[in-house]
Amino acid sequence: MPRERLSVVVTRRLPEVVETRLSELFNVRLRDDDTPMSRDELAAALREADVLVPTLNDRIDAGLLAQAGERLRLIANYGAGVDHIDVATARQRGILVSNTPGVLTDDTADMTMALILAVTRRIPEGLAVMQKNEWTGWAPTALLGGRVGGRRLGILGMGRIGQAVARRASAFGMQIHYHNRRRLRPEVEDALEATWWDSLDQMIARMDVISVNCPSTPSTFHLMNARRLKLMKPSGVIVNTSRGEVIDENALTRMIRAGEIAGAGLDVYEHGTQVNPRLRELPNVVLLPHMGSATLEGRIEMGEKVIINIKTFADGHRPPDQVVP
Ligand code: DGY
User: Residues in domain D-isomer specific 2-hydroxyacid dehydrogenase catalytic (predicted)?
Assistant: First the structure.
């Protein structure tokens, strides 16, 4: 089918330049309000599209895929994580899935560093003092945080983003450690000056800061469960810019409240927008609304990747970022 007749349904508002480019190239239906589609709307979109462009807000499970139309051939996800899509079922039904890896690596790694610094240097507490107009001047003991330089950082998941975090943290003088299913090649490990831990438990027990950078899969669900969180040093801090499901949020909340963990910086949550209310009350917890990749540049590049994936598919080839279950 000629590209311009390909019916592409986009489930969420995208940056204007991306929407314009999509409209120039394909027969696109854009979303005009900035809310996620309901399940019924999503089912209708799956019935009418040749290509669906969803975001992480759209849960595309086996039940929904069963309602997809015969014509649906590609789900070109606007985002890197595909834990919201049942990729295996899509494949069984002959539907390809692609994503947008690489272009949000640096932005997410920057945000990881921002969270590490915000928690260890107590930035939100300082901000609150200024916003409440409570500052009475410099004081030798006011708002003392911890120095990041020299601290041991344990990166959980050493893919693209984990490695980008390692490079940044290293520049801040942190010592880099990591746990990953597969050990990095020696030359990559050397370049990052990173120490690999086969045992996640042993790594956790020795780190000052843990950074979660692994995807959400059945095997990473609650990887940081109550037992592992208990292994952390009481002075330890944990940050997560990956997916909330990797940490048992209730256990984390309990332990921070009990002073068993010193602090946390979270950009993602186990139950999406339903953030444990007790987390919000804690001064040593910094919460962000999933904005790790939120730069205009990054979001445009994500759109460019979506377009390349659709174009390549329309030209009869395998999308460059096809996700294999
Ligand atoms: C992704 O693309 O999966 C990111 O989480 C978006 O920030």
Answer: 8-323
Domain boundaries, the chain: 3-102+295-314, 105-287
In 132-212, which residue ranges form alpha helices assigned H by DSSP? 160-171, 186-192, 200-206
For 267-290, the three-class secondary structure string (H helix, E strand, C coil) is CCCCCCCCCCHHHHCCCCEEECCC
CB of 80 closer than 6 angstroms to any ligand 1 atom: yes
- CATH fold of 3-102+295-314: Rossmann fold (3.40.50)
Nearest CA to ligand 1 atom 5: 81
What is the Å distance from ligand 1's center to 97 Cα?
15
Is the Cβ–Cβ distance between 123 and 172 less than 8 Å? no
Q: If we measure between CA atoms, which residue out of 138, 189, 143 comes closest to residue 163? A: 189
- In this prediction the pTM is 0.96
pLDDT of residue 182: 96
User: To test the ligand 1 pocket, which listed residue (245, 293, 301) has its Cβ within 8 A of the most ligand atoms?
Assistant: 293
How far is it, in rounded angstroms, from Cα 325 to Cα 323? 6
Sequence-ordered list of residues with C-beta below 8 angstroms from that of 64, at least 6 positions apart, any chain: 39, 42, 43, 46
Phi, psi of 250 (to 5 degrees): -65, -40
Angular region, 243: left φ>0, alpha ψ -120 to 50, beta rest: beta
What would the pLDDT profile of 139-181 be if each residue is shown by its tens digit?
999 999 999 999 999 999 999 999 999 999 999 999 999 999 9
